[in-house]
Amino acid sequence: MTAIVDPGVVAAVAEAHRREWAFVLAAxxxxxxxxxxxxxxxxxxxxRALSAWASTGVPANPGAWLTTVARRRALDLKRRDATARRAxxxxxxxxxxxxxxxxxxDRPDISDDRLRLVFTCCHPALSPDARVALTLRxxxxxxxxxxxxxxxxxxxxxxxxxxxxxxxxxxxxIPYRVPDLAELPARVGAVLDxxxxxxxTGHSAPIGEDLVRRDLVERAxxxxxxxxxxxxxxxxxxxxxxxxxxxxxxxxxxxxxxGRLLLLADQDRARWDRAAITEGAALVREALxxxxxxRFALMAAIAAVHDQAPRYADTDWNEIVALYDLLVQLWPxxxxxxxxxxxxxxAHGPSAGLAALDALAEEPQLAGYAYxxxxxxxFLSRLGHTDQARMxxxxxxxxxxxxxxxxxxxxxxxxxxx
Amino acid sequence: MSQYLVLIxxxxxxxxxxxxxxxxxILSQHVEFGELNGSSLSGGNALQPTSTSTSIRRxxxxxxxxxxxPFAETKExxxxxxxxxxxxxDEAIAVAKQVPAPFGGxxxxxxxxxx
Lengths: 418, 115
Fold this sequence. Notes:
The structure holds two protein chains of two kinds. Chain A is 67% helix and 1% strand. By secondary structure, chain A is mostly helical. Among the domains of chain A are: 1-90, Rna Polymerase Sigma Factor, Chain: A (Orthogonal Bundle), CATH 1.10.1740.10; 341-418, Serine Threonine Protein Phosphatase 5, Tetratricopeptide repeat. In chain A, strands 1-2 form a two-stranded parallel ribbon. Chain A is globular, with a radius of gyration of 23 Å. By secondary structure, chain B is an alpha+beta fold. Chain B has a single domain (6-110), classed as Alpha-Beta Plaits. Helix content of chain B is 27%, strand content 37%. Chain B is built from three helices and six strands. In chain B, the strands form two sheets. Chain B has a four-stranded antiparallel sheet. In chain B, strands 3-4 form a two-stranded antiparallel sheet. In chain B, strand 3 (55-58) and strand 4 form a beta hairpin. The longest helix of chain B has 17 residues, at 20-36. Chain A binds chain B through residues 83, 86-87, 89, 91-92, 123, 125, 171-175, 179, 183, and chain B through 2, 87-90, 92-93, 108, 110, 112, 115.
């Protein structure tokens, strides 16, 4: 690190990293035909931006600047190292490769380039874990450490997983393209799972100062809208888009003026995004027309029940539990079971909720998950079991690294009767 | 273009128990596969069952241990292969899906090249 760093430039580079990473990488991989080399060139371009922007000022279109620099670097490396070029597998590319000096201002195929990258990341020949990890790493530019925390695994495990997946893409020649129309529907499911995880990671950031990482949420929303354009008749795409819109509609109300986390019960519903709710509700109706309904359609329907209750007291918890019952059958995940148990407690009282939560206590996948002790603590305090509630809140605090969630839990802990 | 080896793993017992008519039908499916995918095929063979296998390993004294057995005992054993040419993994998978393997399945492995 140099001694003098212009904070304005650092902020601009950080902003470009959040907003432009996938675009720059996707466009650069077209030139390199190799993801690792592409990543290297893109990282190099961001590093150069720090010094270049300090002297020339931040360019009007940072993404285009970074892409040009990264592509030029890629071409240099390929020209200089003929052996590397021969060894570098050329991933299949349907379109001619644009030169580094091509005008990128109008970005004619931005969506397609990012889609190529996401379909490569989500190829069925990769393990499901690797697909999500690669998408977060390559589409969102998350560090390996951030990806590891999103998955609740050690960083070394995640580093090995990502490295193995990249080696397989290269060695087995997993192509860099959007699948043909015939294979598209089968491939979309894998992408949707990944985009959904990307959304949940952004919606409830596992680590950091902010509860929500807007960039991840927006990336998930962008990708889902792109898929919606590509597959307008796909009920699962409609369901996921609905889910994201209906959940994200509450973003402005989720934290108070002081940045503190607000539960559904305490949110100012006037601050919910009505346009998003209207769009999402129409999409839910469309997605639910398919029988049996898909996983995302059911989750979106649950979000819609919340969004359409004028007050918290009006929430139809029985309807929500019924939807969770369908969802658990379709998608028997411990996290879904946890949400169902919490909803069950709100429909049938804290004792019933506590019993439902305790049935999940031995679930190994929930062992590092802060929401389980946090939900227990809530029911325990309602039942007047203050000491046990205090222990459960303390346990939840040990498990969350998100600053806003920590503040929330600390407040709850302080509010318990002495 | 890249080369991939499509390894056919099948239950040998099922093959042994197949009637002559069943076996003949599968063989004709392989002939048909070869005709349909001639431009992708670089080679291929069926193997004798693993009961005919001989495995050879170095032993600790610097010599060889020669045993009457396949290298690894598995329910589904390597019974044949095709060497194919494909532009990428998607194309290789598309060809591999057509390989007849009623008593098991196939595995696609990219051929490694050295500069």
